[in-house]
Amino acid sequence: MKLGANYLGNNECEFTVWAPLLKEVAVEIVAPEKRLLPMEKDDLGYWKVREKNITPDTLYWYQLEGEKKRPDPASHFQPKGVHDPSQVIDHSTYTWQDQDWKNIPFPDWIIYELHVGTFTPEGTFEAIIARLPDLKELGVNVIEIMPVAQFPGARNWGYDGVYPYAVQNSYGGPNGLKKLVDACHQQGLAVILDVVYNHLGPEGNYVSDFGPYFTLTYNTPWGTAVNFDDAHSYGVRNFVIENAIYWLGEYHFDGLRLDAIHAIYDLGAKHILAELAEAVEVFSQQQERPLYLIAESDLNDVKVINPQELGGHGIQAQWSDDFHHCVHTLVTQESIGYYQDFGQCQQLAKVLQEGFAYTWNYSPSRRRYHGNYAGDRPPYQLVVCIQNHDQVGNRMLGERLSHLTSFDALKLAAATLLLSPFIPLLFMGEEYGEDAPFLYFIDHSDPNLIKAVREGRKAEFEEFHAEGEPPDADSIETFKKSTLNWQSRKEGKHKVLWEFYRELIRLRQEIPALTQREQYNSKISFLEDEKIISVYRWSADSEVIYLLNFNGKEVDYSLVIPSGNWQKRIDSSESQWQGSGSKLPQSLSQSQSLNLSPYTAVLYQKA
Amino acid sequence: MKLGANYLGNNECEFTVWAPLLKEVAVEIVAPEKRLLPMEKDDLGYWKVREKNITPDTLYWYQLEGEKKRPDPASHFQPKGVHDPSQVIDHSTYTWQDQDWKNIPFPDWIIYELHVGTFTPEGTFEAIIARLPDLKELGVNVIEIMPVAQFPGARNWGYDGVYPYAVQNSYGGPNGLKKLVDACHQQGLAVILDVVYNHLGPEGNYVSDFGPYFTLTYNTPWGTAVNFDDAHSYGVRNFVIENAIYWLGEYHFDGLRLDAIHAIYDLGAKHILAELAEAVEVFSQQQERPLYLIAESDLNDVKVINPQELGGHGIQAQWSDDFHHCVHTLVTQESIGYYQDFGQCQQLAKVLQEGFAYTWNYSPSRRRYHGNYAGDRPPYQLVVCIQNHDQVGNRMLGERLSHLTSFDALKLAAATLLLSPFIPLLFMGEEYGEDAPFLYFIDHSDPNLIKAVREGRKAEFEEFHAEGEPPDADSIETFKKSTLNWQSRKEGKHKVLWEFYRELIRLRQEIPALTQREQYNSKISFLEDEKIISVYRWSADSEVIYLLNFNGKEVDYSLVIPSGNWQKRIDSSESQWQGSGSKLPQSLSQSQSLNLSPYTAVLYQKA
Known about the structure:
Mean pLDDT of chain A: 96
CATH superfamily of the largest domain in chain A: Glycosidases
Structural class of chain A: alpha/beta
InterPro entries (chains A, B): GH, GH13_cat_dom, Ig-like_fold, Ig_E-set, Trehalose_TreZ, Trehalose_TreZ_E-set_sf
Largest interface: A-B, 35 and 36 residues
Pathway (chains A, B): Glycan biosynthesis; trehalose biosynthesis
Organism (chains A, B): Gloeothece verrucosa (strain PCC 7822)
Oligomer: homodimer
Largest sheet of chain A: 8 strands, parallel, barrel
Distance between the termini of chain A: 58 Å
Binding site for substrate (chains A, B): 257-262, 321-325, 389-394
Domain Glycosyl hydrolase family 13 catalytic (chains A, B): 113-457
């Protein structure tokens, strides 16, 4: 069931809203001219009215049982924010120029995650467009946009959105977003959107006035859970599925990143993610273009990405946070919170060989067993990163990896990411070691809520033994501090790092043993004490070996290679990359001992 | 990890209890001679002490942090009930006589559910033994015993048990139960136990003093959920898995009926039921005898019985409540509560063809979509009934089907059950149309709890528009009223019904088309208005057709048969079964119109 104000052309519009337990619902037209449109309810609780003389840009909301006035839960636009009337949008007025666009084949994806508000000083969709050639040059091919569903105020990561169909007004609204997606496609970049189906934000959250969007059966870290399996769940499921189709259809997105699916509770006989995957697949076939779903998941559960005939949800890919945590702990030596579960080369070796470190192993931080085996799935069904908005921004001071470790270790982490068999995700600015932090910021209007956020974050950080006061999330300075210093990417070490990333991406796309990732096709060995991992990977027509030295000291490593002549392709310790100067030979023709500088990555390819 | 007081012989005993958050735990020996045994804790929170001079039958409890005294959560026996000390049990003193026993092949199971307290006037395990020859004669081959885990007082269905390892004292304790299982095996009957892993009862429930057995993440109809996926869940999972192994091992059970698995919440990467199924399979191989798990499930989810390589839990069978509800509504015309979802022949035809009526259809009573397709699983992976303790006992007046419908309809329901491709379950007394109700009864000692139960049940029945006062659950009269009038089975209509059941079971076991149930191998047609269902089933070497007339009037039905000579095998309308006298031919050699009496079942087999 299509929801919201569906503009039909010729000043005709159909309004549909789901409110199964209400006795009377009407559309109140607010502007250009006030009037009330009574609605009719069907058996499943959908209220409808089809009306002439509705111009695009009409402002409206719903009058519930003659009393409350509420914006449309499926509003396409909230020009004045979360508490004010919704606006009718005529999507046909935008003329798309991306007819020739074809999606990038999924295994080739290299994702660049960005936050609209802080990627540019302007903080708008349109301002991003000028930077696309730079991202193209870097070599990434998919942009992942952090959530744009209307949130309170002008500053938010996006996870406090309360109108899942409405494009944030302060970012430039529907037209701005369309221009950005269109520009990406014209320049050969895919674009995916981060969507949040596990909760709604705390301010401007009026959906419960309409119907049972939430259930008391489950308690999530963010309060009551979205109702995906309880009485009336059909309406909530429809709301979510139509939302996904809406973004993919009206905004031409190439896929969606599903936020925190571990907080989507559904014990019914058809999991909402399976139903969503089915619906997107049907839509993809109708549209004749491939569309993909990626789940952010803390479950380490292969079920998410297994095809439905194997009892899975049939989602194309999910995160492997284990990859991040392995790399992070090895280059920072941090061991607090969930990092206590990591820190061993053996774990990273296991991740590189089969996807997860925790495959029903006991997790000390969770105090329970965690994860299962995903090594039979193609490795490109896992998305990995060494930084993202959460891993950076949920630190009290928003430190990026470049603030926490040495330049050599940064390059090593980048090589571990980009030579991996998984789909890599870069967090904006990571590619040049951005100096700005990425902090947590909000712009709520409710003082109690602001206070609650402040206290909540402080308590959270105290649990992690962080000292001092967290930056004020509600301050505009906190937001501004998080904006990228884009020009710095061409300067000094930033430039070297950027070029190192570009070269890694180029090699990743050139060498078949790195490109072909239907299976792992790898042999991995490690020395825990020496902190060295050796990865041998092959395809039908190529072979590579790369060494990752996570040791802060020089290490001699006896490299065993298959016969043949092996050429060095990249070596992070070379002075070209501002390394200490390499002692590694340009070519190898037999097994031999290599002297590796601290935090070195080196790649050899069989000639 | 083995739990409880593990008697090692020679007056030596090892005590193990899981209490991961406590700082001090000791065993307090209460009798024969008081003393305190300090325990030591391992990394996972298991406290242990191994002690000499512990005679079997020693009474003990745990002293928690020098203060609280609590019975053992894994107590093997609570001689004085739920609030008093636990007793050490030496399981080796019982001499088993069932060495020659082999389990019944699973597809052949015909289950007889009984409640120990009301099956005989004595209400004990041993009193059941005298009745086993009668059950053998009837033809059932598996006895399902309602829960025997120690509950408060002497009267309870068993679902308020609080010591999952302890055999109810008032039923005869460990030795009584062993004698019963042993006797069953010697007489060729399998025995399964109903075990409750989704909650513990409200009185005598001290496990939370030991550790986080419950989680706040989920809210079940019975309160907080058992902790299967939260921090420390490993200890609770071990408690449950060891419990299953304990019953199968120490008490020689042939399988377990898992109560209400829809209230087992586990969103981790390995579902507790999958882990349980794996553990039971391993134990089964060690024991060299097949062991089976059956899930009571309200989910209609094939995942429960799918093998693990198809993403399932790997449980051998689950309930299809849809079968019950279809038959019940067709023979009673009831339409209140969940019965509003049923009442159509089309639904029963669908169940007979593929297992569930609700396969992601909209359920009016649930106000959501429900179930999925299970038709690719062998039909013997579903257990069905026309009566059970819940469907009878959760009615305000505990009416059995024999109180609600005609004798003809009773026979029709029995034929629908016993000619079905599923595993049938009979509820004690059903086979002869027992006159006694099966009421809800308790024997709590806490007056507030008794009051809460009274008020809760009253409110529940008011929701179902039942009039009048429910019988007093706490009264011994309510319990006594529910005891079977066993001698009546040999009298009048009771005897006819009993013989009809016996004949149906005999036919079910004789005719290959009814026996072989790896696939459905059936064609089913129905006439909704006439309320007739025709079922054609075949095996490699036999064919049957049976007609089920749910119409309260005579109906002419044009039966289409494959060529051949078809012999009538059973006809419920014959005067032999106290029917109205049959108008159905003894043999058929061509398609023809048949005149079916009201509520008739007739079976033809191809000669």
